[in-house]
Specification:
By secondary structure, the protein is mainly alpha-helical. It is 52% helix and 6% strand. It has a 5-stranded parallel beta sheet with strand order 2-3-4-1-5, with helices on both faces.
Length: 441
């Protein structure tokens, strides 16, 4: 009769891909190499309590298991979500007996931040007397989520989100295990890594979905990005579209205002109002128009939209209808710019592509000693104290470099914005040249 541990029992792909040795762990060389903190623990066999802090799917549980295996220590895993005091007491008692035989115990606590402060205090005597070596895993900042007393008895190791190279290694490992190439195009493969967002476990789950596809779905060849997305991503929610006239008329309003035609704009809004449309819906769409189509070419458009909406709420119809008419005329005759709209779309696209890249360390606040030791806030320049009130620092993730997202147009107020940006670009170039010259010197 097969047991749970027999090879005939189906395993999730994520389990099959789990590293069997420390050398197979990807993306954490800064902790696991021979001269790194955890690497030295492995070499010496002397393991002290520590906290693994990192994003989901970066290998926290795997590292703890492998550390126990390599040092011949017993491994006792618990989850702070599902375990309570009674479970911990049993483990502590077992660990005490085990210790009398000369064998040490690693107590691995997943999501340790979910234990309250009183529960965390319960670990202290067992950590102090060596009953267990505590290894906690958390996605939250230990400075805020772990008791100071417990934190002072544990080292903190920061794990990194998996890079594209690390994710590539997981995909290659999966292909070797499955005995065939991942059935997607090169573009879909890149998209898959972007969707994983540095999470190896999530990537493994998506890979399993793709390898589970029946042959008929792959008959036409490798999956494109679009076809792959139907397998590994949910479809967005579908909204009610049974009122075609409602959407046709609001589209007519929007296009008329964008085309700077106040007469047509007034006509279509009047059509909607006389048809019994909810005025709040119209004001909501006009407020959106103020920021989407007028934007910073006339920043006052947003104030006009909000004020007109407020006036209508106070006056009601028919008196408040004039506030609606005034807003329609103002928006139609205002200069137009989609600079902010395009900039936002570009920013969202970049955010989706780059995932969870960290901000530069120098612009992060460091309210705790641990964070200062890690390098938070080191080298930050306070712009108002600089010569021109402008430090020229990079505020994008180091892996990205500076990006150009916002492109103002030569209309309305954005003409002034163009001048300001040009001035800052000039200062930034001068600062970069000065730094380069200073470095060469």
């Amino acid at each position: 009769m097969p047991s749970l541990f027999d090879s005939t029992i189906a395993q999730p792909l994520a389990d099959k891909l789990r590293p069997k040795t420390i050398d197979e762990v990807v993306g954490q060389d800064h902790l696991l190499s021979a001269d790194a903190p955890l690497g030295r623990m492995l070499i010496t066999g002397k393991v002290s309590s520590f906290i693994l802090w990192g994003p989901p799917g970066c290998g926290k549980t795997t590292i703890a298991r492998l550390l126990a295996h390599h040092t011949n220590m017993a491994f006792e895993p618990v989850s702070a979500v599902f375990s309570g005091v009674a479970d911990l007491r049993k483990i502590f008692e077992t660990a005490k007996k085990r210790r009398q035989t000369g064998k040490a115990t690693i107590l691995f606590v997943d999501e340790i931040h979910r234990f309250n402060r009183l529960q965390q205090d319960g670990f202290l005597p067992y950590v102090e007397d060596g009953t267990v070596v505590l290894v906690g895993a958390t996605t939250e900042n230990p400075s805020f989520e772990i008791n100071a007393a417990l934190l002072s008895r544990c080292k903190v190791f920061v794990l990194k989100r998996l890079t594209e190279d690390a994710l590539d290694l997981i995909i290659s490992r999966c292909e070797r295990l499955m005995g065939r190439v991942l059935p997607v195009t090169d573009q879909a493969r890149e998209q898959l890594k972007a969707m994983a967002d540095g999470d190896g476990r999530y990537l493994s789950n998506m890979l399993e979905s793709l390898y589970d596809l029946p042959d008929r779905d792959l008959a036409s060849g490798p999956l494109s990005v679009e076809k792959m997305m139907t397998v590994v991503a949910r479809r967005p929610a579908v909204y009610d579209k049974d009122r075609d006239g409602h959407y046709n008329l609001i589209s007519a309003v929007h296009k008329s205002l964008r085309g700077s035609d106040p007469d047509a704009g007034l006509y279509w809004v009047a059509r909607m109002m006389t048809a019994g449309e909810d005025p709040k819906y119209i004001f909501r769409r006009l407020t959106r128009f103020a920021v989407e189509d007028v934007g910073l070419a006339d920043p006052n458009a947003l104030l006009q939209a909000v004020s007109a909406w407020d006036a209508y709420e106070r006056l009601g119809s028919p008196e408040g209808d004039l506030a609606l008419a005034q807003l329609v005329i103002y928006l139609a005759t205002a200069p137009k710019s989609v600079g902010a709209y395009k900039a936002w779309n570009t920013a969202v696209h970049l955010a989706n592509q780059t995932g969870s890249l960290m901000p530069p360390m120098n612009i992060l606040n460091a309210p705790t000693r641990l964070m200062k030791e890690i390098g938070y806030a080191k080298g930050y320049e306070y712009d108002p104290d600089t010569r021109n009130g402008f430090s020229g620092a990079n505020y994008f993730p180091d892996e990205m470099g500076r990006q150009k997202i916002y492109h103002p147009v030569e209309r309305g107020f954005e003409r002034e914005i163009i001048k300001r940006i040009a001035y800052w670009d000039k200062l930034r170039k001068e600062i970069e040249n000065d730094r380069r010259s200073s470095g060469n010197g």
